[in-house]
């Protein structure tokens, strides 16, 4: 259970750092770039994946390239969503991306749809509407907020679908993550060098330090989640529900109590529905 708690804490800390970045004058694109440098090195040193599995003809390189583009892309979208909509609603949208992943599992991967999962899917869709509703804060258009939250919702679901494609091809998840992180870093570094030499955004030590810290915490989220499954191999539904509900609840507490984010009745109702929906989906996996 300790690993699960640490994973939840790291996930919320990522959102906290993204919330603090603009206040510290951090260039998010640079930070995300160095984040993938840290994640790549830590994946290599800690997870020690075998890269021999990538030498076969069945390696899903298209899906891995898709992950390398989608991962930093969703990071940038999440950063904007946290800025525009706050931690509370952004974390809920991120965790409710499992609804689209679940729908894809039914339609694309032949997963069995039972009553619990369908009920969770229905409540989750209502939760998305409630969480995305305008909370009455000044600044920012409703359409803009909706757009960034929708981007988080769809983006994280896309990553989950790509990971499923990779898993179905027989590629170990640790090797897939290392390759995706590495390619993502190379692509992002090329972009940052172009920005640097064109004078758009100069590379700075502060962005490097912030990005490396972001990468350590981001990797910690992944590592502790994997360790939680290893420590409780017969309770995957418990880990799944605990992780998602934990992030939703802790993110709400941090957003409201630490950053003073305001929520409307619809937002709070959506938050409650999100917790129930995740619980129902977890029950359906038993």
From TrEMBL:
InterPro entries associated with the record: EamA_dom, EmrE-like
Alphabetic keyword roster: Membrane, Transmembrane, Transmembrane helix
Annotated source species: Stenotrophomonas humi
GO cellular component: membrane
Residue ranges of domain EamA in the record: 2-132
Tagged with keyword Nuclease: no
Residue stretches spanning the membrane: 28-47, 59-80, 92-109, 116-133, 145-163, 175-193, 205-226, 238-260, 266-282
Designated name of the protein: Membrane protein
């Amino acid at each position: 259970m300790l690993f699960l708690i640490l994973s939840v804490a790291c996930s919320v800390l990522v959102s906290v750092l993204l919330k603090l970045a603009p206040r510290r004058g951090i260039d998010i694109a640079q930070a995300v770039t160095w984040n993938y440098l840290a994640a790549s090195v830590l994946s290599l040193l800690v997870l020690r994946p075998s890269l021999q599995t990538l030498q076969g003809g069945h390696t899903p390189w298209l899906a891995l390239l898709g992950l390398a583009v989608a991962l930093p892309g969703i990071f940038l979208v999440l950063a904007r969503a946290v800025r525009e909509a706050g931690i509370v609603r952004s974390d809920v949208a991120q965790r409710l991306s499992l609804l689209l992943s679940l729908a894809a599992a039914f339609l694309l991967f032949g997963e069995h749809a039972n009553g619990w999962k369908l009920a969770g899917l229905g409540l989750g869709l209502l939760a998305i509407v409630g969480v995305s509703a305008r909370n009455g804060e000044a600044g920012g258009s409703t359409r803009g907020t909706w757009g960034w939250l929708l981007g988080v919702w769809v983006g994280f679901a896309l990553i989950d679908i790509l990971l499923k494609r990779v898993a179905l091809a027989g590629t170990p998840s640790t090797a897939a993550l290392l390759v995706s992180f590495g390619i993502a870093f190379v692509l992002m570094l090329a972009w940052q060098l172009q920005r640097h030499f064109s004078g758009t955004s100069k590379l700075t030590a502060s962005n490097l330090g912030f990005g490396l810290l972001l990468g350590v915490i981001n990797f910690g989220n992944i590592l502790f989640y994997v360790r939680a499954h290893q420590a409780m191999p017969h309770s995957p539904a418990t880990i799944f529900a605990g992780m998602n509900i934990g992030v939703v609840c802790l993110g709400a507490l941090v957003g409201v109590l630490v950053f003073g984010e305001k929520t409307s009745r619809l937002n709070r109702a959506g938050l409650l529905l999100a917790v129930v929906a995740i619980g129902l989906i977890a029950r359906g996996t038993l």
